[in-house]
Design a protein that fits this description.
236 residues
Length: 236
């Protein structure tokens, strides 16, 4: 049987680990419950969008040979900007698919039209601003910049984002998504950028959590009257 001093050490280890890890365990539990009880489509803001988005079919489009300044095509995407077709070539150049004219960026009015093609028609725009840089915790992190941030007059603090370079609709952000994002940060323990699931901090806390659970089992084993009785009977 485990000696009394050893049992005391196990109990202290379990107690202090529990105190140290308790808040993080609580955040893991709360965030896990939130993730399992929420509709991921609502978190993505699909209920604010036109599904599918409004789209136009185009004909008589130019071939890539008719575009000036294009030496080769590695990738190409057909985009609609304010009712006009555009080629987004090699992720860097934007050309009108009917005139061949190169376009450097989209205007606020064009960005609003792009957003209107993707968002519900009953939503009213309250403001539009251009953003050129964002921090690691910004809701638009990891996406093309510069971009237009379009705010809507809703209680959910709804915003849509349109890339300035090619007019592509990027994403929707709202209150429930921000709560999800905050809880995701506490779940992954990536307090720098929020999206790294392999942080040393998370690994360390996971290991300490395992030790806490194992020490709890060991503490139960060393202090259980039933186990002690079984050990005594075995030693007779």
């Amino acid at each position: 049987m485990v000696k009394r001093q050893t049992a005391i050490k196990i109990r202290k280890t379990h107690r202090y680990l529990g105190i140290f890890l308790g808040i993080q365990f609580l955040m893991w539990t709360i965030s896990g419950m939130y993730f399992s009880w929420t509709d991921i489509d609502e978190i993505h803001g699909d209920h604010f969008k036109q599904m599918p988005p409004k789209a136009t079919s185009f004909s008589n489009l130019l071939g890539t040979d008719s575009l000036n300044g294009v030496e080769g095509v590695a990738s190409m995407e057909l985009l609609e900007i304010a009712g006009q077709p555009y080629y987004w070539i090699n992720g860097a150049q934007l050309f009108n698919a009917k005139t061949g004219e190169q376009k450097k960026s989209v205007s606020e009015e064009e960005a609003l039209q792009v957003a209107a093609d993707h968002m519900r028609p009953d939503l009213k725009v309250s403001s539009i601003v251009q953003i050129n840089e964002v921090g690691p915790h910004h809701e638009y992190r990891g996406r093309p910049l510069p971009a237009y941030e379009i705010s809507y007059a809703t209680s959910e603090e709804l915003k849509a984002y349109v890339a300035l370079n090619n007019g592509a609709f990027q994403t929707v952000r709202h209150r429930d998504w921000r709560w999800f994002d905050f809880l995701w940060m506490t779940h992954t323990m990536d307090y720098q950028g929020r999206d790294d699931f392999n942080t040393l901090l998370l690994r360390g806390f996971s290991l300490l959590g395992l030790i806490t659970v194992l020490s709890g089992f060991l503490l139960w084993f060393t202090s259980s009257p039933s186990v002690r009785k079984m050990v005594k009977q075995k030693n007779k």
